[in-house]
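Reviewer 2 asked us to include a model.

Predict the structure of this chain.
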Amino acid sequence: MANANFLLSHLEARKQQNALRELQLPAGKIDFCSNDYLGLAAKLSLNGEHYKHGSAGSRLLAGNSALAEETERLIAAFHVAEAALLYNSGYDANVGLMSCVARKGDTIIYDFLSHASLRDGIRLSGAQSFAFLHNDVADLERRLQTATGNVFVVTESVFSMDGDTAPLETIAQLCTQYGAHLVIDEAHATGVVGERGEGLVQQLHLEQACFARVHTFGKAIGCHGAVVLGSEVLRSYLVNFSRPFIYTTALPESSIAVIRKAYEIFPQLQEERRLLQQLISQFQQATMRFAKLFSETPIQGVVVPGNEAVKQLAATLQDAGLDVRPILYPTVPRNSERLRIVLHAFNTSEELQLLTSLL
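Predicted model (structure tokens):
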């Protein structure tokens, strides 16, 4: 086997930061860490229907199907979009979108807390890029005033680490004022925000203000994959220029069928979304020894500065049978290390009471 010892110094540096990542197997504890907000991941079934488990090629070669195109039309209609294009994951969708729509001479302005997949796509684009302070519309406008070329403003509707929401109405107004293209990642709003889980953009009636929206299926939707929503022109452009779409084996029919099934189910889960809101209120009203981030979404952050301190607290909760994971520097800025506590419709008030009492 080829020598990989040259990598050891980088792993050692992570150990010294107490930030070395290691895989863990599920241990049967009470789930306060997964993104399965509505509990759909274990419930989706195709009821004996049989679909191919391999697509045998990219969508442009052997991997396209009538099922894929029908599902894209269904999703586009649900989200009030002109067109939709499926991707294999949210990461692929964000990288595939951002890496090709902006080019040299263009400008991308993104929220400082935007997901790594958005930032990776931005780096690959060739456009100049600038971060604006998290949810700071004054800083965003300052950046817009000097932007050149085609200008793209990128944000998330619900942020994955803090659980807060973006001021989308004001951001959309600024994009209209300055002629910028608005891109919104709805990953953590999909299935959860809105009467039917349609997301924050539709709840605020901002569909027409968006250049592109990304919805992912690996969280509240309970399956795998993602979709980019936009115009027919954008869809055609992505088919021609988005490398993660062009050069990867397509989702198999079995995965697409599960996505379609999920879209039949999750809009009807009003009771689950109501239960979630009750748990969110219970957590936000609880008193605890640590700084608690304000969030009206299932993602709840408890800040415990220092990798060692937050890991020790997470271990205490794990010993109590609660699956809560620490988020360490460098994933979050130093001294903002936290427990990322995720609430689910299947969690009980008693389980949450146990968690908050330990905090």
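The longest strand covers residues 151-156. The longest helix spans residues 270-285. We have added this to the supplementary material.
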